[in-house]
Amino acid sequence: MKRVVITGLGAITPLGNHVDEIWKSVINGESGIDYLTRFDATNFSAKTAAEVKDFDLSNYIKVNERHRMDRFTQYAIASAMMAVKDADVTIGKDVLPERIGVCFGTAIGGIESFEETYQNLINGGYQNVYPFSTTMVICNMASSQVAIALGAKGYNNCIVLSCASSSNAIGDGYRAIQRGDAEMMVVGGAEASITPLGIGAFCAMGAISTNPNPQSACRPFDVNRDGLVMGEGAGALLLETLDSAIRRNAEIYGEIIGYATNSDAYHITSPAPEGKGSIEVMRMALKDAKIEKEEIDYINAHGTSTKNNDKSETAAIKKLFGEAAYQIPISSTKSMTGHMMGATAAVEAIFSLLTIRDGIIPPTIHLENPDPECDLDYVPNLARKKNVRTVLSNALGFGGHNSALIFRAV
């Protein structure tokens, strides 16, 4: 099985529109959450969101092509182009077009375009529907439009597994290279679901924070947490074989050494009791990595700031790691980015790799009164310097989807 490393990163998040800018905000414990501005939220219980700000598409997508894409697809293309540029890869020179593939995840896809299309239909009949509406809405446009933009003609897939989507997309790209189906893969996730329907549905479910204060609305593991804060954006990674990276003399951020995915097969929104599915997926990832649990130096938690998730994930970590769980630094970077849905795991994978590179563990901000049932070391409020070699990154999604990735320094 081929060794797979990461040589390129790209991201657009509520904290900024370039990886360096975003990472600086993360280690400074800054929040990308603010008042919801994408639409009039007067009649919505949620008043806050983590919105992408001041993003300039002009460097990535031609003006005459943008109107054919939903925002989630635009974010996907831009982040993928950033990752390829960061890796200093020229397709056709460093890799044949047929040997570089794409796998992107999204939880919801083109919901903004869906809402606009429906309004056009109601207002003027099907004759008033934009001809490209279908291709703006469907989820696979992230992976297909990225492939078109890059000229990547190899393995192509789109993963739709709720909030675990981009973790599985990374894992799928990892497996494709291991099998020899590709030499390089552009992987990640994108989301743009801060819309009346996107926010309204989560309000109706009761899963979203109704705290009107942006500075305290998202507080993973805190006893006063009351739900997630919706975020948006994209994250992309360029994966390649270790042999290819060495041949190109590429900068290597880290290696993927473990991946696993499973299902709770329990409930459409609630995690399995005591985090049983999470326990097993972490155990499977450790087995895939061929390492012992004592080798994990840091865990980037799913940590959504919902009552059930945070307790369940904490219980799962304690069950798997035993007393050693209290010695492992853990943080939820969603406290700063909000929950970016199908993009969140890709962005958290980037944070995991930069933690390895820089030896700085991101904090969980707004953690002031820890929940007694969430009693692990969540690196509260301030980043921490620590030599980190191996990171476990968790992702959990509605429907009982669980995914785990393990990254290691090369």
Keywords:
410 residues, alpha/beta, Peroxisomal Thiolase, Chain A, domain 1, 2 domains, ten-stranded mixed beta sheet, two-stranded antiparallel sheet, fatty acid metabolism, transferase, Ketoacyl_synth_N
Structure commentary:
This protein is an alpha/beta fold. The chain has helices at 19-27, 63-66, 71-87, 111-124, 133-137, 141-150, 165-179, 196-205, 242-248, 276-289, 307-321, 334-337, 344-358, and strands spanning 4-12, 34-35, 48-49, 100-105, 156-159, 184-191, 233-241, 254-263, 298-300, 330-331, 360-361, 384-385, 390-397, 401-408. It contains 13 helices and 14 strands.
Helix and strand arrangement:
Elements: E1 4-12, H1 19-27, E2 34-35, E3 48-49, H2 63-66, H3 71-87, E4 100-105, H4 111-124, H5 133-137, H6 141-150, E5 156-159, H7 165-179, E6 184-191, H8 196-205, E7 233-241, H9 242-248, E8 254-263, H10 276-289, E9 298-300, H11 307-321, E10 330-331, H12 334-337, H13 344-358, E11 360-361, E12 384-385, E13 390-397, E14 401-408
Helix pairs in contact: 3-6, 7-13, 10-11
Catalytic activity: a fatty acyl-[ACP] + malonyl-[ACP] + H(+) = a 3-oxoacyl-[ACP] + holo-[ACP] + CO2; (9Z)-hexadecenoyl-[ACP] + malonyl-[ACP] + H(+) = 3-oxo-(11Z)-octadecenoyl-[ACP] + holo-[ACP] + CO2
Pfam families: ketoacyl-synt (PF00109), Ketoacyl-synt_C (PF02801)
Family: Belongs to the thiolase-like superfamily. Beta-ketoacyl-ACP synthases family.
